[in-house]
Each structure stands twice: as structure tokens, then as C-alpha cells.
Amino acid sequence: MDVARLMGPHNGLHIAKFICREVPIRIAHIITIIDGLPEFLKVLPFLKTVRHWYLETLDDLLFISKYIEPLRNGSEETSFYVRHLYDVAKRILKRHEGVVLSISLAISDLKRDGQDVFDPKLQAFLDRLFMSRIGTRVVLHQFTNVYEHFANVSTDEASLANIGVFEQHVDIPALIEEAALNARSLMMKTYMDAPVVNVTYPQLKDENQSITFSYIPSHLYHIVFELLKNSLRATVEFHKQDDFIPAIDIVVVKGKEDITVKISDQGGGIPRSALPRLFSYFYTTANTEDAFDALRNGLSDMNHAPLAGFGYGLPLSRLYAQYFEGDLQLISMEGYGLDAYVYLKSLPANARERVVECTS
Q: Which of 141, 219, 222, 345 is catalytic?
């Protein structure tokens, strides 16, 4: 919300300078993370492509920074260069759309060559890389969205609540309803059946009430959709010989510290020893080779291919939860089902951004 106010008619230069100082540091950290990998990883074609994208982005930002840093509010050049930074930011966001799938293709090549893709160092690298990517894209999306708002709309203070990627009053029931509807629709297309999703809000006294908080709604949607998709699939497959498919139960409670979303299914659960691997990149029970082959051969659009079945849904969902000091935890009852707990900070003041620092 503060970013929205900073982007007012007289403060566009302030946030532009912030972008020019902060984002190059984050991009340089990502390049350093990639450069710290073992040689056999760095030579993978898709990973070399990703590194090249980040180098291009760093060059773009350093170039425009030379013109923005000396500017002062009120100068004739200010609006021109802030607009130019907006164009650069849009180009950067477009350039990096395919990073996640490019990395997944690189790791797929490793797996084909017999490498251990569950090596802890590789998993830690992916966590750091993707968390850095999340933070960088949040900053750039916020800047471009806020710039577009002030460029096209004459606004007052009251309308600043929902500018950019943040919303001051995210309607959790409405968001969960949308995620459940879309997840069930996807299940119906694949399995011709889908469990009912029941949602309970113990603190709400009537249907006109809601639970709201300040957050990035797209992040929460991603988390809930991914968890529901997994629960729906597990439940249908575990009960495929039964006459009745049990429902998925969701409970949402807002406490003083956390908002907790619990998603419970009766999909058979998993052995307790396998729980840590659920958050490993590339861990999936689906057959992904055909999908990866289509991407390699250009038969599928890498920027828009679904992540379902690639083994990235759960680890990325946990990173989205952890980005603002939240968490995602799974508890399994083998032979019965699984409970997923999503913890998100209730108060914006406690939801500090998790910034990945560069380590040697």
C-alpha cells in the first residue's frame, strides 16, 4: 500500500529510484546463485538461457539507472524516464515468464542422465532461486501496475487500497470459492468426477460476514488451488472403487497472529517417511516425460504450459506462503488422508518480506 502512495503524481521519481537501486541488487544475487552451482549444472542449455536472461535484465536496469539517478522532481525529463523505466520493467517481466519451466527442463535433463535430482544442495538452490524470483517480480509488478493506474486514472486516497498486486482487504471466502470452483472444474475434465468442497468459517455468525486481510491475492489463490487440486485428485483415485467419494473439508480461522487455512482430504495420505519429499522439486506421482518432451520439441508453449504434474506445485506454494513470514505444513494419516495447514500473518506489520541474501 505504501508503494501505491509513493507513486502519486509528485512521487513517481522516488519509487523509480528505488526500483533502480533495489532490483539490480536482487538480479545480481540471482546470477550469483546460478554461478555458485557445480559446473555440470551450469552447462545445461536451459540453465544457461536463464542466466543470459538475468544478465540482459541487469544490463537494462543499469543502463536506465544512469539517467534516473541524477533526476530531480519537477524536471522536464522526469516523466519521460519514469515512463521508460516502466517500459523496461514490462519487458523484464515478459522476458522471465519462462524461468520456472526452463529450470524444470534443465532438471529433467539431469534426471534423464541419472543424476540425483533430490540432492539437498540442488533443492536448496531451487528454493533460493525461486524465492528471489518471487520477490523481484512482486516489486516490478507493483511498480508497473501502480504506474498504469496513475497514468490512466485520477484517484483519491480511498481508492489506493487495491492498486497493484496488493489488496488491503482480500476477501478470503470469495477467493477460496473461486479456487475450489476452478480446481473442481479441472478435475471434472480429467476424471469426470470431483469431490464436494465444504468450507467452514467458525468465527462468522452469518453469510454476510467475511474474513479479510492485507495480502497479494494471486499468491493465496495459487496456494489454495494447488492444495485443492492435489486433494481432489488423491481422493478420487483412492476411492475409485467406492460408490461414494468423501468431501474435501476446509476450515478458515483468523487469530491474533495468523490466519490459518486447513484443507483436509480422505485421499489415503502418504507414509510419514515420505512427507519431506513432498516439498522436493520434481517429486510427483504423475508421468511427466511426455509433457517435457513436448516442451523440448516446441510442441507446447513453455511460457503457458501448466505446472500440474511437473513436481513444482507444492514447493512453490510453500515459498509463496513463506514470502511474507507464513508457512505451509502437511500432516498425513497413512491409509486415510492428509491435512494441509496454510499459515499467513494476520497483521501487515508482521508480514515482512523474506529477502534472499547473497552468500559466498
A: 222
Neighbours of 59 (CB within 10 A): 12
Beta-strand relationship, 197-200 and 248-254: parallel
For residues 196 and 180, the answer to whether their CB atoms sit within 8 Å is no
pLDDT for the residue numbered 9: 46
Homologous superfamily of the 168-350 domain (CATH): Histidine kinase-like ATPase, C-terminal domain (3.30.565.10)
Position 360 pLDDT exceeds 70: no
Catalytic residue among 229, 345, 350, 353: 229
pLDDT score of 108 more than 90: no
Cα(104)–Cα(303) distance, rounded to whole angstroms?
12
222 is catalytic: yes
307 has pLDDT over 60: no
Active site residue 303: no
Give the active site residue among 96, 219, 230, 345: 230
What pLDDT sits at residue 254? 95
In the chain, CATH 1.20.140.20 sits at 2-162
Active site residue 111: no
3-state class percentages of the chain: helix first, strand second, coil last, to nearest 5: 55, 10, 30
* CA pair distance 171, 208, nearest whole angstrom: 12
Tell me which of 3.40.50.1820, 3.30.1490.270, 3.90.1150.10, 1.20.140.20 is the CATH number of domain 2-162.
1.20.140.20
pLDDT tens-place string over residues 119-143:
888 888 899 999 999 999 999 998 8
pLDDT tier, 147 (very low <50, low <70, confident <90, very high otherwise): confident
Annotated catalytic residue 226? yes
Is the predicted pLDDT of residue 5 greater than 60, yes or no? no
Query: Which residues are registered as beta bridge partners of 329?
Result: 341
- Check whether 295 has a pLDDT greater than 80: no
Q: Which of 29, 96, 141, 226 is catalytic?
A: 226
